Amino acid sequence: MKSTTVAAVREALARQRAASRNDRRQSPDRCTAGAHREPLQLGFTLIELIATVFIISILLGVAVPLARNSIQRQKEVALHEALRELRTAIDKYKEASERGMIPMKLDTEGYPESLRVLVEGVDMNGTVGKKLKLLRRIPTDPMTNTTEWGLRSYQDDPKNNSWGGQNVFDVYTKSQGTALDGTKYKDW
């Protein structure tokens, strides 16, 4: 009798396991054993959408100023390069004038009369038809997008922005802007 009871219990447990496996296999939108299940809903909740928009707006708020500073930094680097190119050409002209390679005009102190002279060239002493050219072109000012530069002559007051016209001792940008480090571009 004992063996029949154990066999009956085993058989009842096997039937329960099979029934529970069948319940799990059924789709969630069907009713099982009298219980009603809601259909599976797909999509995003309003809170999830708001959180996503909020995170994206924070990321954009950080990225836009970085991009703006990057563009300004590139222009500042270009301004440094253009000023260096012009000042190097002016210094080479002065050196050639002091060495007697080119004629020195009166009241120029050995500096060029204009930036155009650096491009067009000046006749060299002791040669026929040979010119000393120090620039291929006048660089564009990246802050004003023109080839118009502020000029200072050797005789001008360094704090004054007007050019005396005797020679070109130094150049500066005509931009009134302020650099990322807080200095004025025209003071570079």
Describe the structure.
The protein has 188 residues and is mostly helical. The chain folds into two domains: 1-37; 72-187. Helix content is 44%, strand content 5%. The protein has three helices and four strands, in the order αααββββ. The chain has helices at 2-25, 46-98, 115-120; strands spanning 122-123, 131-132, 150-152, 170-172. The strands form two sheets. The protein has a two-stranded antiparallel sheet with strand order 1-2. The protein has a two-stranded antiparallel ribbon with strand order 3-4. Strand 1 (122-123) and strand 2 (131-132) form a beta hairpin. The longest helix is centred in the middle third of the chain and has 53 residues, at 46-98. The radius of gyration is 41 Å and the shape is rod-shaped. The model has no long low-confidence stretch (mean pLDDT 83).
Which terms would index this structure?
single chain, 188 residues, mainly alpha, two-stranded antiparallel ribbon
Strand coverage percent? 5-15%
Count of individual helical segments: 3
Which blocks of ≥5 consecutive residues have pLDDT under 50? Answer: none
What shape does the CA trace take? rod-shaped
Q: Which structural class fits the helix and strand makeup?
A: mainly alpha
Number of domains: 2
Largest beta sheet, briefly?
2 strands, antiparallel
Over all CA atoms, what is the radius of gyration? 41 Å
Mean pLDDT: 83
**Number of DSSP strands?**
4
| Helix share, percent | 40-55%
Following the backbone from N to C, one meets helices and strands in this order, namely HHHEEEE
Largest beta sheet: strand ordering: 1-2
How far is the N terminus from the C terminus? Answer: 108 Å
